[in-house]
């Protein structure tokens, strides 16, 4: 489907390796062409966005206007109020910033992007569609459909604006583990981990820029429909908030918290020990490349912490994209390596001490207080600590009717409640825990076979388990209290005075 970017206008600062031509238009783009449209999906930001830089650059070279299109799917991987509220609030800020600083309009559509985007391209007679990159199958299918539906003359370019090293450049194949991809990525960092060029202003204005979007109603609508999983309060959405978390003067990760990353990041009692960037990275409200550049600039101060952070941010995160890009079965047992499938199936009918249904797990009704605490942290706080995620998913394997069911339940819960869910990192996290993806074989034992095992006693050796349970109890109590107060205030407002 994709070919190297031969027919592009030579781009200002966007390396050709970052761009794939998904469809070559029949008419060269600079000859009597229409505008450029950037269908934004995964990289929802103005700053440090290679796809936006490319779209504006191509528009200026062809002397045509440029717009951003965003499609709000009716249903996308089960997103609820928590995820959609965060996303739309971020987009509302982006809309304002794009209008004010660059006069680039946003057009918002609802429904299926495979229909809305080609329709929009037809209406505005666009010549070039630029999109950002996601390895998820829903989006790839959608792009294939868009390529089929747009007119022959339209070109479609995909820009990997999410990964530091574009996924198709880092490796041409499914990688086995961090060990096999690390060297490939590191070798390419001098070429790709570079400063962003300044974003040019569009030279031609879009004819009618006053596109009104009723963000308040849209947000109210998603909050109502997805009320089952309410929004979180501790994490402000948007690009500015993301930069504050990365390097704010009050509590920024690189400015205030970096030192403890190498010691505290595996301690669930110290959530501030982690960067807290995953919600922003997931929605593309911050660029991983920006995070990496800023981290490198303070490397001398805390070399160990920066190395550990870059390993997670670049190697592990991009390994997850590699898995989803090259493994069509990235969220099922079929996607596990042969050795893992064999060992898991060999132990699928082993006797379990407990078997819980999805509902029991969802309600945190197991005999393990530690597991229940992690589930409640996810349900109420919206972000389970990274260390607990591994234990959590491995226990689901132990307590359900086999690996496929364990995988389905863990992905279902992860995607429903995590603010950073529905992400390649989530699918790979569950596949790592349940199916040993990117891991190695360990000593064989019941149920797990050769898949790495984790247990309560191991957690006890690593951190204060009772302290974590008490911490989550407090967290849940506070969240419930705030929710009740909020509800009360809302009801009082509605009552006639
Ligand atoms: C079962 C399971 C489910 C998971 N689900 C998700 C998910 O839905 N979304 C998600 O973003 N991550 C997921 N992870 C990976 C990891 O736990 C989170 O990225 C991390 O806890 C997010 O917190 P942070 O940004 O504060 O982490 P930090 O340690 O500060 O990491 C910085 C960034 O590096 C990346 N990163 C960190 N750890 C990993 C990892 N193990 N694999 C890939 N990238 C990593 C993330 O983008 C993260 O935001 C999952 C892991 C497991 C085991």
UniProtKB/TrEMBL annotation:
Gene Ontology biological process terms from the UniProt entry: photoreactive repair; UV protection
Catalytic activity: cyclobutadipyrimidine (in DNA) = 2 pyrimidine residues (in DNA)
Reported cofactor(s): FAD
Enzyme Commission (EC) number: 4.1.99.3
Keywords: DNA damage, DNA repair, DNA-binding, FAD, Flavoprotein, Lyase
One function term, GO molecular function aspect: deoxyribodipyrimidine photo-lyase activity
Domain of life of the source: Eukaryota
Protein task: Involved in repair of UV radiation-induced DNA damage. Catalyzes the light-dependent monomerization (300-600 nm) of cyclobutylpyrimidine dimers (CPDs), which are formed between adjacent bases on the same DNA strand upon exposure to ultraviolet radiation. Required for plant survival in the presence of UV-B light. Not involved in the repair of (6-4) photoproducts.
Name of the protein this chain belongs to: Deoxyribodipyrimidine photo-lyase
Species in which this protein is naturally found: Liquidambar formosana
């Amino acid at each position: 489907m994709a070919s190297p970017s031969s027919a592009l206008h030579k781009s200002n600062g966007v390396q050709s390796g970052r761009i794939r031509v998904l469809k070559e238009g029949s008419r060269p783009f600079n000859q009597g062409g229409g505008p450029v449209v950037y269908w934004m999906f995964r990289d929802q930001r103005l700053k440090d966005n290679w796809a936006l830089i490319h779209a504006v650059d191509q528009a200026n070279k062809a002397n045509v206007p440029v717009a951003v299109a965003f499609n709000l799917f009716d249903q996308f991987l089960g997103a609820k109020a928590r995820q959609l509220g965060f996303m739309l609030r971020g987009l509302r800020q982006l809309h304002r910033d794009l209008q004010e600083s660059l006069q680039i309009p946003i057009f918002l559509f609802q429904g299926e992007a495979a229909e809305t985007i080609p329709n929009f391209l037809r209406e505005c007679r666009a010549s070039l569609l630029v999109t950002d990159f996601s390895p998820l199958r829903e989006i790839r299918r959608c792009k294939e459909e868009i390529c089929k539906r747009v007119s022959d003359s339209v070109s479609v370019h995909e820009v990997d604006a999410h990964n530091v090293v574009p996924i198709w450049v880092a490796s041409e194949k499914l990688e086995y583990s961090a060990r096999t991809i690390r060297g490939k990525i590191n070798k390419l960092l001098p070429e790709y981990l570079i400063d962003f060029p300044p974003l040019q202003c569009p030279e031609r204005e879009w004819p009618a820029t006053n596109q009104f979007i009723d963000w308040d109603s849209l947000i109210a609508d998603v909050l109502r429909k997805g009320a089952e999983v309410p929004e979180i309060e501790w994490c402000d959405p948007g690009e500015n908030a993301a930069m504050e978390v990365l390097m704010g003067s009050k509590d920024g990760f690189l400015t205030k918290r970096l030192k403890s990353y190498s010691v505290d990041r595996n301690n669930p009692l110290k959530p501030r020990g982690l960067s807290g960037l995953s919600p922003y990275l997931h929605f593309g409200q911050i660029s991983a490349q920006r995070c990496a550049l800023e981290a490198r600039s303070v490397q001398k101060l805390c070399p160990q912490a920066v190395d550990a952070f870059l390993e997670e941010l670049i190697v592990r995160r991009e390994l997850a994209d590699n898995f989803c890009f090259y493994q069509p079965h990235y969220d099922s047992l079929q996607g596990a390596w042969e050795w893992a499938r064999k060992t898991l199936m060999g132990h699928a009918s082993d006797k379990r001490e407990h078997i819980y249904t999805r509902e029991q797990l969802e309600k945190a009704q197991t005999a393990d207080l530690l597991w229940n605490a992690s589930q409640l942290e996810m349900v109420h706080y919206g972000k389970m600590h990274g260390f607990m995620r591994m234990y959590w998913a491995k226990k689901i394997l132990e307590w359900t009717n086999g690996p496929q069911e364990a995988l389905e339940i863990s992905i279902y819960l992860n995607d429903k409640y995590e603010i950073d869910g529905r992400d390649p990192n989530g699918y790979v996290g569950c596949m790592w825990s349940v199916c040993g993806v990117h891991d190695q074989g360990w000593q064989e034992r019941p149920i797990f076979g050769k898949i790495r095992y984790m247990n309560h006693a191991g957690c006890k050796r690593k951190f204060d388990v009772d302290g974590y349970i008490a911490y989550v109890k407090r967290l849940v109590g506070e969240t419930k209290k705030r929710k009740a107060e909020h509800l009360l205030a809302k009801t009082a407002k509605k009552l006639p005075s």
